[in-house]
Specification:
heterodimer, A: alpha+beta, 4 domains, six-stranded antiparallel β-sheet, 22 helices, globular, B: alpha+beta, OB fold (Dihydrolipoamide Acetyltransferase, E2P), about 30% strand, cell inner membrane (chain A), membrane (chain A), Cyt_c_biogenesis_CcmF (chain A), Cytochrome c-type biogenesis protein CycK (chain A), cell membrane (chain A)
Amino acid sequence: MLSPELGHYALALACIFAAAQGILPLIGAHRRDRRVMMLAPGLALGQLFALVVSFLCLVNAAVTDDFSVQNVAANSAVTKPLLYKITGVWGNHEGSVLLWALILGVCGAAVAAFGRNLPSALRARVIAVLGAVAAGFELFCLTTSDPFARVWPAPMDGQGMNPLLQDPGLAFHPPILYTGYVGFAVPFAFAIAALMEGRVDAAWGRWVRPWAVAAWCFLTCGIALGSWWSYYVLGWGGYWFWDPVENASLIPWLSGTALIHSAIVVEKREGLKIWTVLLAIATFSFSLSGTFLVRSGILNSVHAFANDPARGIFILGLLALVIGGSLALFAYRAPSLTAGGLFAPVSREGALVLNNILLCSICAVVVTGTMYPPFMSLLFDRTISVGKPFFDATTIPLALPLFIFMGFGPMLPWKRAQLWPVLQRLWLAAIVTAIAFLVAAFGVSGLLPVLSCGVAVWIIAASVTDITERVRLFRMPLAGSLQRARMLPRSIFGTALAHAGVGITVLGLAAMSQAQHKIVEVPVGTTEHLAGYDWTLTNVTQEPGPNYSALVATIEIRHHGKLVTVMHPSKRSFNSQNQTTTEVSIHTNLLADLYGVLGDKHGTDAAPTYVLRLHYNPLAPWMWLGALVMAIGGALSLSDRRMRVGAPRRAKLSAETVTAA
Amino acid sequence: MTRKTRRLWLIIACVACLGAAAALMLRAFSSDIVFFVTPSQVATKPPPADRTVRLGGMVVAGSVKREKHGETPVARFDVTDGQAAVTVRYEGILPDLFREGQSVVAVGTMQKEGFVASEVLAKHDETYMPKEVAEALKKSGKWDPRFGPPPSAASWNSMTVQDAKKDLSPKEHAAPSTN
């Protein structure tokens, strides 16, 4: 029933639906023809249905081991566990493009389903822009990377998946990350639609913000999951490599963070309108370029799936069309958008502007550092690489002021503010920060880690202060405070939580700079000392697995003679690919990770020795925990009533001066 | 606060931040950029001892030696680009995909006793060669990717470009399909 041919047909059908979705509603909106505009939601849902069928066909082919499908034959095998047969669908180039298109289809259908309170012309235009982008991607999928291509003769067994990808963390990393990337297509579509209408107002800001926040939450989780995966799978004890692909996800995150903050100013004060539209365009453009960088192999990276010039050229064309077209429309239309309300430099708006300037500076630094090596090799034929030292030296000095201003930004009133009263309210947070500085100065080595610890504590303390001040905790009876807390909009809690999440992550990053490690080659029975723990290698055995055989070590860890944990790092050899992978063993108590890696076996069989890599990583889990807290903060602010209901009706235009494009 | 003074503040803030970003980048570009070098470049003009570089090439087959200094495992291997070979010393666990006769990138500094690596990278995919290594091989005329997989590292030091072309069997002419 769900044959690959049906999948291919459904994909082609989705492409036709998407093309129609990209053209008809625009015509309808231009002619103010309600009936044509009303086609948009139906087409978006139709496209989604076709994409779901297509995707299910590919999943079906993978699950039933249909090796006559090239994509399955190249990436799957009979012995692969079922979970990885399913997740392996998006572990390769063709499948991941299809997943991308599917998520874009979900976005279009979500706007169709949840956008009932939008003006019909705006909704039609937003859906149309999403349809046009989807049509481009589906055409790319159909013409250059067909996931349903058959192979003849069909092999008896597939070539199997790269064992490194056979991991639950990586299995769910791409869908979440892609949802983040693709989710920014919705703010982009809103921006383009607003430019077509020539109108951006507070209502627009309120409509666009939930979509941007939702995409931002997914992107945050996706990046954190990817970082966590490289931490526990690659076995280097590192969590972020400033690899081009990692940067490709960080860049839209930075501009997306700027976007969700500047959209607040549009919503509340009708300011920064042109800037917000530009940020929405830039964020999606960065997301698209991220895909382009991965797929084309323009950047050397561990993530490159395939280097195929035809794909690169197609994506480059698509990119030029989307980015160039939207920027041209922006240049043409932006001057017609009116400037917003005035505000003093010291005000909430001023703080949000500063946030945007600093985030965009960091973004510019990361973009330059990522693009510099390929440009150098293209223009001057010099192979260079830009790594951790460069990004540390450039991003941290820009991030520190951002973190400091983050503390009191949310406490400043709108329009015009006095700095002194705000600082007075933060005296307790300042004292806590000063203590943290002193503690860090004694316990932590290096200037930047000490400063980072200080600002991290400052952010958390200031976020807590913001909430306690608003509910007048300890200034009035507890019941009154609780009552006030109940009345407080959830988005206030969301902001405080997300900011505290940043503090938690920064604290984790700062502490990780103090990580200790040791590499030793020892026989069984040896005890090593690291960070106050005694690590004893007690046993090494050979154990079979479903499609590999493993060398498993047993390491007992004691602290002052008391057994803390027994860990089993192992090394797996996969017979199908003649590959080995390292299985790290991690014991965490949330304050520190004990991290053990088993390396090669040396020496004679009678007296073997084993290479061990032992790490002590203080506060390591906080890095990802902080990201999770950020995402929860975003979700909390999404659940705010203001985001869902009571979306404002647009003020009636006094005259038809600003008409549609 | 008039519109003009407000705009002035904005411009000052923008210029200050972007200026700081540019200054930081220029400083980092002069000190924190890591250049890629081939073994032949190291042989002719070794980089200064305090400069971190990425050395790329193929691991010479049969050159990997493992030693133990106290409890510290030390690996030594030769990296070649077909013109010259450099001995690399590395303390630690070699990556899973590290193989003799395959491409590798070592990050470290050139010292008197040889190249001391702080990090050794072999790529995720065993059929994948780091682009920088492939470029270096192509430039030295040792390998044309259109004619099949790279020749084994052991044969390089004696091999000429003509040998490489003559050596090709018809099977290797069929370009491996990418998907």
